[in-house]
Amino acid sequence: xxxxxxxxxxxxxxxxxxxxxxxxxxxxxxxxxxxxxxxxxxxxxxxxxxxxxxxxxxxxxxxxxxxxxxxxxxxxxxxxxxxxxxxxxxxxxxxxxxxxxxxxxxxxxxxxxxxxxxxxxxxxxxxxxxxxxxxxxxxxxxxxxxxxxxxxxxxxxxxxxxxxxxxxxxxxxxxxxxxxxxxxxxxxxxxxxxxxxxxxxxxxxxxxxxxxxxxxxxxxxxxxxxxxxxxxxxxxxxxxxxxxxxxxxxxxxxxxxxxxxxxxxxxxxxxxxxxxxxxxxxxxxxxxxxxxxxxxxxxxxxxxxxxxxxxxxxxxxxxxxxxxxxxxxxxxxxxxxxxxxxxxxxxxxxxxxxxxxxxxxxxxxxxxxxxxxxx
Amino acid sequence: xxxxxxxxxxxxxxxxxxxxxxxxxxxxxxxxxxxxxxxxxxxxxxxxxxxxxxxxxxxxxxxxxxxxxxxxxxxxxxxxxxxxxxxxxxxxxxxxxxxxxxxxxxxxxxxxxxxxxxxxxxxxxxxxxxxxxxxxxxxxxxxxxxxxxxxxxxxxxxxxxxxxxxxx
Amino acid sequence: xxxxxxxxxxxxxxxxxxxxxxxxxxxxxxxxxxxxxxxxxxxxxxxxxxxxxxxxxxxxxxxxxxxxxxxxxxxxx
Lengths: 375, 168, 77
Hints:
The complex is a heterotrimer of chains A (375), B (168) and C (77).
Chain A: H1 3-27, E1 42-52, E2 55-67, E3 72-85, H2 88-93, E4 97-112, E5 115-126, E6 129-142, E7 147-161, E8 168-185, E9 188-201, E10 209-212, E11 215-218, E12 224-238, E13 242-253, E14 258-270, E15 274-286, E16 311-326, E17 334-352, E18 359-374
Antiparallel strand pairs in A: 1-2, 1-18, 2-3, 3-4, 4-5, 5-6, 6-7, 7-8, 8-9, 9-12, 10-11, 12-13, 13-14, 14-15, 15-16, 16-17, 17-18
Chain B: H1 2-21, E1 37-39, E2 45-47, E3 55-61, H2 66-82, E4 87-93, H3 98-107, E5 114-116, H4 121-125, E6 133-137, E7 143-148, H5 154-167
Parallel strand pairs in B: 3-4, 4-5
Antiparallel strand pairs in B: 1-2, 3-6, 6-7
Chain C: H1 2-20, H2 47-60
């Protein structure tokens, strides 16, 4: 039985058992140890940058979290992307442009016994795209804190425009997620996650073109897309004061796109409190069923969006956290400084350079510098 | 079928509440507190049985346990208040690193004795089910109260229980 | 359909079994959780950094979901 058929069986099952599963877990909600705690108060100030494939994006990001030491913890984040784009798609048909995107999130966690309920709102704005979403998540500890079950739902509404005319379309997105985090031994924890996303509305790209026998035509995607993603993560501690992380995610959707993501990471204490983390990530996907680099005949749905082509990318990441201070007196109780850098190599199998006709590939650099303070 | 499922789920919900709320412990209210000897930050060894005659609070904590860190300043207040009239607190740290435990206790202002259970034998003896875990022992060495975990407001319960035990 | 019925019955059976047990012993006791509480044993030590990577990948790859970031849309043409 291939993947698609397996998924077609698993998804309805997960949806149908979720209610009894929810009741089961709520039944044991308050048993044994009461150990759920709200996230710590902290402020993160970060600068991020991306450069690759003719695109650069950088900006600040700020995250603040504050609780009332009892049952509430509120958080707010502000993120800015300053983008200049002369990507391969832009080069083919347009000229370099600059843009700014603002992203704001506000949310609150509420703790009752072993359950944490989170409600949050997100807004993303740029000159030709805006998105609003609401999210609700519940997290429940049980079996003496050995297991944590998560369930969440998001609904969003996006408005798609063009900078050069009064084009205006909408799209709605609904996300549904389940997760289970399980302590296996005193050195080993795993996490299983499932997420299904249903999109409906204008899912094409307002600026992109498809290619038919060498000529550019407007692209058109179906107006619905449903996906499922399944992931497993494992984290193990070792005597040499380090940990090994392994992640795998499988993704499939109704556009025929499937992908596998593997990631392996090693974290190690250097000195008493500083941490060095090295990780390697491998991603590969096969194309959406209405994708072609150059169609030989006109179809109802056509796209030449390289995001939907057959390609793979590999990332090498290094992250160093310097432990600045930690004490129980003074306004800030702990401070960390983190520098992170990543190199991503993109290799496209069936997307070619518009001029040379060669399979397209490029390298991107991603970096973040982060100051975290706890209070 | 749907109705049966709903009814069954409701029955489970109710029976689950009853079934699992009574968890068995190795120690229970009314029994004599199991004796032990541990090294401490103030003297070489502290033996629980030798402290009989005082009202004793046994508080199991660790540097890596957030609710424990929030609780300790409250415990210090109780210690300062009732120490002179026959009350003491033994802060049993289960950390592997004794120095770290002493440093954190000092930073949090704790002046009561910190005992080191780094082999976790006493935690096993008392069958600790949560972190932190607080036990109130009366002047006869009997366990009178068990508190699982710490939530803001518990210190009022501690205070009330300590006053009652001191009056006996 | 059959799979979901079987799974539902298993869950109900499990619930009945669990209600029969009067005590649950987690095999990693609360006082043995020092390592699990260590920052190096967290799946996400820096949510801000992970969120940024999630965005970088989300914009360039065709897959989304089952990760750590929630919400936000991006035109990113």
